[in-house]
Amino acid sequence: MQQVTSTVAQTIVAIIPIVGIVMGSAVVFFYLLWNHRRKTLLIKAGQWTRPHFDLLSFSLLTGLLLGSVGLCLTVFLSIMLGLSFGLLGGLIPLSMGIGLLVYYGIKRSEHP
C-alpha cells in the first residue's frame, strides 16, 4: 500500500509544474491578445500615442542589476566550485552588465 501512495504522490508532484506553466501561458496569451485589441481600437479612434522609452536609463538600471548579480554569482561560484564551467553562470551576467554600463557611459558622453 505504501508503494501506491508514493506513486500517486509522485504523479501529483509531477503534474503541478505542468499545470502552472499552462496557466501562466494562458494568462500571458490573453494579456497580449487584449492589449493588442486595445491598441488597435485606440489607433482606430486616433487616441494612441507612442510611449516614451528612455534607453539610457534602461541600460543604466539593467547594467547595474546584471553587474551586481553577476558579481555575486561569480564570487559565490568561484568559492564553491573553483575554476570550472559552472563559473560561467556568474561571468555571463557580469559581462553583460559591464557591457551595458559601458554603453551607458559612451552614450552619455555623446549627449551632454
Task: Record keyword descriptors for this entry.
mainly alpha
Overview in brief:
The chain is mainly alpha-helical and 112 residues long. Helix content is 84%, strand content 0%.
Rg: 23 Å
> Looking at the structure, what is the overall shape?
flat
The tally of strands reads 0
Assign the structural class, choosing from mainly alpha, mainly beta, alpha/beta, alpha+beta, or little secondary structure: mainly alpha
Q: Helical content, roughly? A: over 70%
Strand content: under 5%
Number of helices: 3
In total, the number of domains comes to 2
The N- and C-terminal alpha carbons lie at a distance of 75 Å
Question: Could you give the order of the helices and strands?
Answer: HHH
Please give a structural write-up.
The chain has helices at residues 2-45, 55-81, 88-110. With 112 residues, it is mostly helical. The chain has 2 domains: 1-51; 55-110. Helix 2 packs antiparallel against helix 3 (88-110). The termini are far apart. The mean pLDDT is 89.
Topology:
Layout: H1 2-45, H2 55-81, H3 88-110
